[in-house]
Amino acid sequence: MKTLFLLLASTAFASAPSDWAKQNLKTLVPLYHALHQAPELSNQETNTAARLAQEFKAAGYEVTTGVGGTGVVAVLKNGAGKTAMLRTDLDALPVTENTGLSYASKVQVKNKAGSEVGVMHACGHDVHMTNMVGTARYLAEHKADWKGTVVLIAQPAEELGEGAAAMMKDGLFKRFPRPDYALALHVSGDLEAGKIGYHAGYAMAADDSMDITMKGRGGHGASPHLTVDPIYLSSLFVVDLQSLISRERNPLEPAVITVGAMHCGTKANIISDACELQVTVRTFDPDVRARILKGIERKAKAIAQSAGAPEPTIRLSDVFVPAVYNEPALVDKILPSLRKALGDKNVVEKPAVMGAEDFGRFSEAKIPVFMWTLGTIETKRLKKMNEGGKNAPSLHSALYYPDIGPSLEAGIASLSSATIELLKP
Ligand SMILES: [Zn+2]
Ligand SMILES: [Zn+2]
User: Fold this and answer.
1) How far is the CA of 186 from the centre of ligand 2 (A)?
2) Helices 17-37 and 125-141: crossing angle, nearest 10°?
3) CA of 93 to the centre of ligand 1 (A)
4) Other residues' Cβ atoms within 10 Å of the Cβ of residue 65
């Protein structure tokens, strides 16, 4: 009896992260619900940041708030060793929740135009935060399993691609220990809860946006010969842009050019003076990126010149989000611990995507990073959603919601195991 008691006591003390997560869902799920019900838009995450700061402090971390806006940094030192940084994001989206859940967000705010919009954690950043709090507690309760320093960051404005850069500009790596590794996860709307997906190398794309004004000379729609028609020129331009992908790019190097907006003209019989175009460019390789950006400029100028139009204005947005490059050596180092924590069949390789994530800033800052995706939909529900060849609601959809228990179990188990693997005594 006594031996059994000792055995139980020692296993409880050194519990595996997934068991620990399961046992602690009773406090973590309410935290998730609270965060989900009080979403805040990018750069306005004041209450969310305060709640996380309070949770990290309670877990024994040294906490600094207001880093790069609403960012939070929590540090736990545990002797000499490497430094691992774990990142969550704080912000929600201007989406009106339509999940019908009892804990759905009812938050409404006024947008810039003055109209009411709903706010929702439609990208699962509330899951990321709850995972981080769980992992923070796990690491603090299991200090015998690791040595070194854990730096937790909760960053603002991921959805604007700004928060990671703002925190670095505010001295993230000068005021706090510079990490040897950085880890993060992102929820997935089409992977089963309990599983994680990974991709070594380039996993998410670099994201550039460009604003282009194609200029013409306006006039009467019945007298095109007295005008230079910017709609005609813009149409040629939009079509010609795709030749940068189909003819000028090595087919084995991924890249996307999308013209997401084109605004011109007021009326059928008026030729306008100008057209405004908004373009997104997604690439992995920096050389491919440079060639495509130059190519877009060249094409815009050439089309204007061929029609005798004024030179177009081309503005590349400063908010460039670099690609997420999962350091292959780091992925190799961590994978066995993830397989051990979740089971072999629950760690699956996934293709890279052309979506962007400002976690790529840390790749750019030359820190070895690994970001994996976290399954959040229970098998039965996912099967049902995929019936008849349909897709499950994607992230950013008003219908997306995770099955929170198993999502947190795998999230906390993966983050904790990976961190302990990197900080092995
Ligand atoms: Zn998002
Ligand atoms: Zn996101």
Assistant:
1) 6
2) 140
3) 8
4) 16
